[in-house]
Amino acid sequence: MIQLIELTVNGERHDLVVEPRRTLVDVLRHDLGLTGTHVGCEHGVCGACTVLVDGAPVRACLVFAVQCEKTDIRTVESLADADGTLSDLQQSFADHHGLQCGFCTPGMLMLAEGFLAEEPDATKEEIRDVVAANLCRCTGYQTIVEAVDACARRRRAARQEVLGRSAS
Amino acid sequence: MKPASFEFHRARSRAGAVELLTELADGDPKIIAGGQSLVAMMNFRLARPGHLVDITGIDDMTGIEVDGDRLRIGALTTHRTVEKAGLGVLSAAMRWVGHLPIRTRGTVGGSIAHADATAEWCMLAVLLDARIRVLGPAGSREIAAGEFFHGPFWTALEPDELIVEIVFPWPLPPAALTEYADRKGDFALVAAAVDLDRERTVLGGVGPVPLLVDSLDAEEIAAGLDVRDEPGVSAHYRRGLARTLVRRAVAEASP
Questions:
Q1: What residues are paired with A8 via a beta bridge?
Q2: What CA–CA distance (Å, rounded) separates B135 from B122?
Q3: Mind listing the pLDDT tens digit for each residue in B50-88?
């Protein structure tokens, strides 16, 4: 059985014909060619396939694409500018050596992006706790925690500056 | 792996979901909400339902409401929503449910229906004498949590019934839940939850369903466990974990 669905990914609408058993990660990669999202364990343990669904980090291997109609899906491809300029979070990963082989990186980025949007004042301990959701077999996590924390600090500083300017 | 084929249906209302379950009864239908346990099982082909009935579009099954001496949690409420709702032991216990991306999608009702023996919601429901309200073709009924869990992945829920809400007594007592797993976010090897008011403990991971014991005495509870040596986990180790976790839970629950 196949089904016609409408998905909004990175702000773009797509009409797709898929089998209901197709998971979101397979639709992203195979039907939409968005191979930035990686697929690892396919049972919700490794977190490599993490994307944002309505702003919340979600394991794309544990949700069927047919369940994601009328949601706003964001993948790692949405982070950098069209000209390739990295987002502040991506740049922070590069600056702090938050990746080595890069397999876990898209999932880590989307996990951190979703988490920081919800908890902009997250402490380093809270960040450490959250990145435990995804497996990284290279970095030992320390540099990932530092990258996310540094990005959060910079965003807080920028927010303070805006607040300070509007107050004066 | 990839899941086996199934047909997908969307329920728009509680009654609509029950109707679909009844209509599709011969085709092995299954309710899907957050899918955080079910899709993993389907990917492993441990579960191969012929039909999935998606209930996430039903809008009156989400939310938390204090109703006199009852706290009603809609079955579609996510773990993350409860975690951030400031509901004492219930919110505090959510930190043990998988990881953040699991908690943003997984639901309270789904967890209860799945009935893993170490699941936090199953333990909390038994500890606090929650009632599971379900809807079937004949109408709705409430099942006491103590009678709901029959075994791992086996409950009192009939195949054509839908969990609508979980009802906890309100206000909640001083209580706490704590766990141990080799890796954070994994299924607990042993989990313990205590209610200081009623001096009772629920243990997960020591039997096929959450085990209720009328005691807070860690030594006595650990000594009374019927556990066996298993590959990698000796009975001695499991008993030791139970003892430590009961103590930790009592300490966390104490004002």
A1: A13, A72
A2: 19
A3: 999 999 999 999 999 999 999 999 999 999 999 999 999
Lookup: tokens for A122 = 């997250």
Residue B185 contacts A, CB cutoff 8 Å: yes
User: Using the beta-carbon criterion (under 8 Å), do A21 and B56 form an inter-chain contact?
Assistant: no
Q: What is the pLDDT of residues B120-155, one digit of tens each?
A: 999 999 999 999 999 999 999 999 999 999 998 999
Q: B64-169: which CATH number, 3.40.50.300, 3.30.465.10, 3.40.50.10860, 3.40.50.720?
A: 3.30.465.10
Q: Tell me: ipTM over 0.95.
A: no
CA dist B151 and B69 (Å) reads 30
In CATH terms, the superfamily for domain A1-78 is: Beta-grasp domain (3.10.20.30)
CB-based contact A58 B104, cutoff 8 Å: yes
Least Cα separation, residue A29 to chain B (angstroms): 14
The Cα of B218 is separated from the nearest Cα of chain A by a number of Å equal to 28
Q: Give the one of A23, A44, A132 whose C-beta lies nearest to B184's C-beta.
A: A132
Question: In sequence order, what DSSP letters do the residues of A104-153 get, joined into one string?
Answer: SHHHHHHHHHHHHHH-TT--HHHHHHHHTTS--SSS-SHHHHHHHHHHHH
Asked if the peptide bond before residue B171 counts as cis, ω within 30 degrees of 0, the response is yes
For the domain with range A79-168, which CATH number is right: 3.30.2350.10, 1.10.150.120, 3.40.50.970, 3.90.1150.10? 1.10.150.120
* Unique residue bearing structure tokens 């320390």: A142
Architecture of domain B7-54: 2-Layer Sandwich (3.30)
Single-letter amino acid code for the residue at B96: W
Question: Phi-psi region for residue B47, left (φ > 0), alpha (ψ -120 to 50) or beta?
Answer: beta
